[in-house]
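Entry type: protein chain
Record version: 2
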Amino acid sequence: MPADLAVIGLGHIGLPLAQAAVAAGLGTIGYASDPQTAAALGADGPLSPTEVRRLLTAGFRTTTDPAALGRVRTAVLCAPTPPAGDGTLDLSAVADAARTLAAHLRPHTTVILESAGYPGTTEEFLRPLLEQGSGLTAGRDFHLACSPARYDPGNRRYGHANTPKVIGGLTPACTEAAAAFYGRLTDKVVRARGPKEAETAGLLETNYRHVNIALMNEMAVLCHDIDVDLWDVIRCAETKPFGFQSFRPGPGVGGHTAPVDPSRRTGQGRSPGHPLRMVELAQQVNARMPRYVIQRCATLLNEHGKSARGARVLLLGVTYKPDIADQEGAPAHEIAARLREMGAHLTYHDPYVPQWQVRGRPVPRADSLYEAASGADLTLLLQHHRTYDLQGLAVKAQLLLDTRGATPTGAAYRL
């Protein structure tokens, strides 16, 4: 049966987009090449099992039949682009999605890339794959555009409807076709000059987050060294009504959007120009934070007459953001692995993660949170979920190290 929209890739970008489209009354299908992916939509994804059930009840359907992609008006590519081993973005999933779509692409279809990429990905990488596989010409036979994903998992204030969408089409007609689609999902559409401008806007937004978090992480280390209350510093700085936007330090930076340096592209799509030195430095700073947290743990235990070897450590919150189940890139994994290497005995608690493994080994889950905190030599808050009563936990815990600055002043040791 024909549908208005096909979402290709049912992960952290695709599922929320499908949810917004269905809510707007669009007939929507989700394509996944792997039947297991299509069947496990509510497992550790951006939507809860309840939200997935509501989505399916509202008419959303998944398919593993690529022929269904030839019966839609709009196709949005939401394939993941994780960082590869050399620090570049891995576009292989986008390539696979493009080839699958191209084999069934019909004239007048609007194709939109939401996956993260480099400036030029839409025109130089995606376009040739679609044209070669379909025999059609982008901008003439079908519309092609880029609209970087802006969905923020767990954000209760901003969703698709009230978050403007940036759109850059291959031609003005392509831009307007994509704008007509997104105009049904969001209150505001922002037209970029072209796909490269839209892609670079997404790059700027991602790098802005990482660079500013890196600054705060460096400030956290500095303030600890000079015995200054970082969190009071932030509270004071936030009162400035101009020229300052508040970010928070933490044990590391997780999530699906890695910082992007176009100069690191390799192969045919190599970008000219100078490297983004601030982005490179921000990556280094943020990557050091798990080791810094381990150092603080060991020092804190030592100051209280205990060794990390044999210490009972309770980890609170192992997801990368509060109040969601997604663990992508969460620093909890590296921190847990390093604590184990030091000989610590770990337990964890997370209301969104019923089972947890680190490097193939399970970590025992604490059933009684307060009992576990009182029995642990050190309780380490890595993610602040709303369900946590930090005041109560601070009373129960022998030692509490808060890496998120969420505990009341004086109730715990803070990053």
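Comment: The chain has a mean pLDDT of 92.
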